[in-house]
Amino acid sequence: MQDASPATYQTPSAAADPLRLTERLSARTLLIGGVLTIVLVLLIGVEQDPDFWWHLRVGRWMAEHGRLPSQDLFTFTVPTHVWTDHEYLTEMLMWLTYSTLGLTALCIAFGLLTWAGFWLIYLQVRRQPFVFIGVGLAIAAVAGSPIWGPRAQMITFALSCLELYWLQGYLSGRSRAINFFPLVMAVWANLHGGWVVGFVWLGVALASEVMSWVANRDNPAHRMHVRRLAIIAVVSAVAVAATPHFLSLYPYPFQTQGSEAQQRLIVEWASPNFHDLFLRPFEAMVFLVIAAFALRRPTLYQFLLTSIALFLALQSVRNVALFVAAATPVMINTYGEWWRDFAAARKWTYHLPPRRLFAVITAIVLIFIALVTVVRVANNVSPAHQQSTDAASYPVAAADWLAAHPGVGTRMYNQYGWGGYLAYRFYPDANRRVFIFGEAALMGDPLLNEYQDVQTLRQNWKQVLDKYGVDYIVYNKGAALSNVLATQTDWTLVYQDSVAVIYVRRAATP
Fold first, then answer.
1. Nearest to 250 by CA among 3, 84, 480
2. Which residues share a beta bridge with 496?
3. How far, in Å, are 23, 129, 364 from residue 355 at the CA level?
4. This prediction's pTM
5. Which of 135, 155, 246, 256 ranks highest by number of CB atoms within 10 Å?
6. From edge to edge, which strands make up the β-sheet containing 500-505?
């Protein structure tokens, strides 16, 4: 008998490859792949965070001086305040990226970091029916859309997703990657002050396992989990000290959370206002999670995790991102398991056999979605779009006027959200130091309260300006303070445009 020809042996492999490709290009791939591609339009956008500019300027200062700032750099009001710069590493990376690759690359980098968080969410739910995965991820991306953007907070979002992925794997018995969490915490503490959130998620897992152990002493797994998670928590707490700030970093997050002035003055630290349309998707997601728990009882861990995440989000708008990180996998898994039970009880089976025509259509549609997404993202982060956004959001033209008139003014009162931009534009010009900027903890509650006294025209607003020797004001056109200044004989309007006004104090006459 003759040996089979090489073609005979290659035929099964050649036939199998197109079949595997057909199976991969399925309805599941179309929906989940399409969603994970389209969400990039929401995650990658122009810079709109008022704190971005002073973060960038601090990164440049550190690159130039080779050290961390120890005191305030940008104001004339609190120059002696000690600065615990908990985001120093992020600021350095931001400046290096910006100075070498440009702002567009920086915006894309933060967007991809946020997308990595969504990929980690997907890994937690990948075994669920694909419809629930795709719809759930889409809902989560829209719910968090007011928060996404090139900002340091996205580091905490992504690392929260990583931690929650590891915790789910450990509690389900599939992975012990959570053992590496102290290393993550050491890096996290050098990148963003949100590192304390890592202990919140760890505490939720530990609390759920302690309660489960108390309720069921016969199950040794809970006792083992408690012991391991407690050790990880202790080692992680020690790892936080691996920063240039050492022990001084520990109280920082609690000082921020305990600041009543920050909660009252800074919009993103306030509770969500559901009359704002952009928060309606978050509101809808909350109701969807509640409905999921009504359909299927969550585990103790899922319930505690979602409850704590919702509490944080209702305390502060900025924590909506944390709610998305924690609640999205719970929501998708709960609906997915409910559907499995529902279908099994009715003996429903569903299977879509692979078809080459559908695979071709899937490939074409995904390519089309990818191309449209690339075009939309390119438009989102284009220099022209960034320039128009900056002109509408910051006193760009007013700053140009101040640069052209260096003899005007010596001490500025500025709008809080503009302080970072003005510091970026003018530091280290002594006559252009700002009254206040976005590092609220560095500013301190007394200055925040005095700023608000002027902003809200309280009885002592003139005394505050006199106390600090303010002789020019850069503020929003049409704001109450700007309108009142127009009626004051000791203030003169020297510049205005559609965004900002500049008032200069008249010299006192003898």
1. 84
2. 501
3. 8, 19, 14
4. 0.91
5. 155
6. 412-414, 472-476, 500-505, 491-496
